[in-house]
Write a sequence for this structure.
């Protein structure tokens, strides 16, 4: 299904791939078979869509290959006067439908192939939700927990200065991702603006409200996941107020998703983070759990629940499973043990192609990441529009427009899948690829 071979990575990428893991420690799991990388997974998904759509090999290669990649060295002067060198990347996958858009992550295991995969998924996500962007992604192979705020500011400003030639409000608009936040975006905006000679609020999204950020942006991905999860539960025959859920990951996406699900009446019985998991079959008090995490830094030890192995969260007897941590957590080794009837992907690429096939054969409804977690890019687009107009919307306006976009996309993907007897992932990817290919066809090939 996938005729393209993975490109050879650069020496910088090879070095980054060997960096020690730290910030985004994979959730503990039982031994698992070797699985393809996220980039291989992304290419398999694209190849399936290309075959379904009947595209030529030339168009396939165009869709599979990033338009631009940049690997940079990011030197850092530590607070103690020592110097260290980190490796950074920015990949712009496609521009056919508009400027590139994608997050920036700080994690020790960042490498070029991972960034390529995430950039490709961003292209499909933007197209599927009809946001006028192409996909991009960036990263620095650094563990932010090991650095002071002053050191992170210097890393961010140096990384931004290194990628200045390829970013801009009409070129490529970064946003926060794993290990970065609104303060990171403020530093990026300031660095770009100082070099431009005037303030450019549209260069990034996910900024602080005081610097032109959008109301509702911080929780947008989680709200989008919740809108889709409630719709998927109802489609599968479950009433949300009588349903149970487990959420893997209690960070930017998972924490608010758990809160919003609980507010909608779903009984969230299990939650995990990179350190462990907790279980209360009667339902977790998400507000109290959030306070516990704020005080201790982890869900572990929460007095309102029992301890649970992180890997066991994925196989809890619940109606809904929301993997909202990292990629590849549902794989050949555990897919047959998943008991949830509905899986809504809050993370990027949490389900491998092998696991996808196993889950579909077992009748599990899997809502793919490019649909389920698209709330962030939708509200990032809203923020970009507001910044360009210097006119900001009310929180209720942002949230109602987000819900409308998410549910419209859900209905479109569901109808496409049912009419052609496809999985939701294949349907979503095919719809997105078709839109990108059509934009490419209409624009033509230069020269």
């Amino acid at each position: 299904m996938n005729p393209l071979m993975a490109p050879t990575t650069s020496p910088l990428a090879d070095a980054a791939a060997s960096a020690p893991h730290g910030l985004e420690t994979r959730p503990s799991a039982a031994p698992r078979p070797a699985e393809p990388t996220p980039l291989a997974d992304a290419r398999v998904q694209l190849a399936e869509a290309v075959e379904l759509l009947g595209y030529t090999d030339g168009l396939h290669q165009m869709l599979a290959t990033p338009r631009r990649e940049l690997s940079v060295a990011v030197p850092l002067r530590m607070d103690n006067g020592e110097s260290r060198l980190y490796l950074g990347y920015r990949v712009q996958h496609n521009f056919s439908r508009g400027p590139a858009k994608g997050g920036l992550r700080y994690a020790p295991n960042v490498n070029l192939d991972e960034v390529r995969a995430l950039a490709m998924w961003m292209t499909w996500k933007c197209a599927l939700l009809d946001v006028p962007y192409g996909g991009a992604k960036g990263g620095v192979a650094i563990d932010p927990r090991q650095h002071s705020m002053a050191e992170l500011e210097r890393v961010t400003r140096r990384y931004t200065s290194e990628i200045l030639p390829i970013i801009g409000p009409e070129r490529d608009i970064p946003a926060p991702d794993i290990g970065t936040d609104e303060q990171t975006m403020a530093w990026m905006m300031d660095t770009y603006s100082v070099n431009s000679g005037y303030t450019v609020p549209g260069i990034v999204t996910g900024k602080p409200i005081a610097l032109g950020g959008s109301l509702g942006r911080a929780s947008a991905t989680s709200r989008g996941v919740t809108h889709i999860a409630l719709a998927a539960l109802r489609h599968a025959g479950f009433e949300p107020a009588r349903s149970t859920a487990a959420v893997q990951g209690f960070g930017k996406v998972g924490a608010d998703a758990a809160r919003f699900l609980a507010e909608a009446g779903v009984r969230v019985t299990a939650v995990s983070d990179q350190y462990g998991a907790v279980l209360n079959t009667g339902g977790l008090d998400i507000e109290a759990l959030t306070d516990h995490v704020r005080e201790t830094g982890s869900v572990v030890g929460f007095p309102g629940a029992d301890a649970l192995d992180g890997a066991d969260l994925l196989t809890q007897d619940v109606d809904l499973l929301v993997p909202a941590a990292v990629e590849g957590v549902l794989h050949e080794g555990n897919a047959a043990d998943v008991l949830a009837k509905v899986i809504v992907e809050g993370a990027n690429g949490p389900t491998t192609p092998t696991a996808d096939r196993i889950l579909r054969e077992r009748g599990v409804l899997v809502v793919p990441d490019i649909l389920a977690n698209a709330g962030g890019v939708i509200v990032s687009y809203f923020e970009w529009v507001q910044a360009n107009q210097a006119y900001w919307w009310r929180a209720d306006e942002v949230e109602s427009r987000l819900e409308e976009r998410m549910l419209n996309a859900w209905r479109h993907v569901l109808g496409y899948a049912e009419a052609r007897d496809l999985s939701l992932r294949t349907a979503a990817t095919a719809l997105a690829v078709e839109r990108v290919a059509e934009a490419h066809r209409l624009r033509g090939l230069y020269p």
Remarks:
- Residues 1-32 have pLDDT under 50 and may be disordered.
- The first strand starts at residue 68 and ends at 77.
- Residues 5 and 296 are 45 Å apart (CA to CA).
- DSSP finds 14 helices and twelve strands in the chain.
